[in-house]
Amino acid sequence: MADKDEKLARGGDDAQNAGQSGLDSAEDLEVLSSADAEDSDGDGEPPPLEDAGGGKKDNNKNREGAPDGAEGVENQGSDSPAPDPEDEWLDVLGNGLLKKKVLEAGKGPDSKPTKGQNVKIYLKASLADGTVVVEEPCLSFTVGDGDVIQALDLTVLLMEMDERALVQTDAKYAYGALGSTTPAVPPDASLILELKLLEAVEALDLELMAPVERIALAGQKRERGNTYYQRGDYAFAVNSYSIALQITEASSKVDITPQEEKEILDMKVKCLNNMAAAQLKLDHYDAALRSCVSVLAHQPDNIKALFRKGKVLALQGEYAEAIKILKSALKLEPSNKTIHAELSKLVKKHTEQRGVEQAMYKKMLGNPSSSTVQKHKAKSSWSFSWKWLFGATAVAIGGVALSVVIAARN
Question: Membrane-crossing residues (predicted)?
């Protein structure tokens, strides 16, 4: 039950994860379509979660169960009781898709958690019809890291310590159009979340963490990125991979063995490879190229990095260099059909590109071949005319000379 609950909060879905998308959690390379989509500055700072600041109170629905369009309490009559502020809904994002209502006040505004802290909450999630999909007595996550669905990340920041709250979230901030099989959440399903903030503490100092703990934490962030990738949320995937990468690159003030160094490096390479795949999906070619180059700096024969580097160069129109990279990858894995297919496609495109360029040059410079032929023909005709004239003259002179000699003899 605990595993199921954690998958709900973190957006995990075994069915959605069935198709491995060429990430390092799978063995096969992915042939990324050229139409698939990090800008040159986006290799480490993808778009953050939607701003959770402020929000608006929804005064037209200040009573639980009030019908749509019901008038506010202030319009009901002079003897109606004044509304309880805790009974009002807060429109978190101002778009009506994510609302929060305080059920039990907490310890004051100063007790609210901040981004980057580790929190523990009680969570009960239900569908709109009341079906409970999960109940987790103590769910832990880092605020703002994208470890959980957006509805939790956004609303927990607004909660006081020990506060109980009710949250209504649209599918956009839960499981979206895909839904989930584990937990069983239909596509485009809204959720009702009952929350209580139990604890908020500062995250551990990465420099003081044991290497094995850093590796495990980086692995968790990378797997979360894989989940986002498989759901098509590529910007959030890049965010998770970036956080995992920062964990692997943090300096350490504790002793670390050569084996642990190797494991950390392996995790770093996996994060970079997966990040490159997500950046390609976002059409962020410069950032994807930098990720591939970083991998190859550590592992020059990394097949996935070579393949994706070739893909990026091809998408940037650098066909000759892309072909060179893919040929080097093919030497390492001669039987790899994916590389064979991509290389054949690029060779054909490169040939077509050269043909177009040659035609363009001919158009710019005229048609040198035909003009040369015409000049050659003209020169040949003049040469023939002069030869004929010279020969005829020689014959005529010879005839005259012969006539003079014969006349002299007579």
Answer: 388-408
**Domain extent at residue 224:** 208-346
CATH number of the domain that 330 lies in? 1.25.40.10
* Predicted model pTM: 0.71
Question: Domain ends where: 346, 369, 396?
Answer: 346
If one counts the domains in the chain, the total is 3
Q: What are the φ and ψ backbone dihedral angles of 196, each rounded to 5 degrees?
A: -145, 130
Is there a single domain that holds both residue 199 and residue 216?
Answer: no
> Do 302 and 320 fall within a single domain?
yes
pLDDT of residue 77: 41
DSSP string over 275-328: HHHHHHHTT-HHHHHHHHHHHHHH-TT-HHHHHHHHHHHHHTT-HHHHHHHHHH
Q: Is the pLDDT of residue 358 over 90?
A: no
The pLDDT tens digits for 151-186 are 999 999 999 999 999 999 999 999 999 999 888 999
Residue 204 has pLDDT above 70, yes or no: yes
94-108: burial string, b at 16+ Cβ within 10 Å, e else: eeebbbbbbeeebee
Kindly report each contact of residues 149-152 with a partner whose C-beta sits within 8 Å and lies 24 or more positions away, as own/partner: 149/9, 149/10, 149/11, 149/173, 149/174, 149/175, 150/49, 150/50, 150/174, 151/98, 151/191, 151/193, 152/9, 152/121, 152/123, 152/193, 152/195
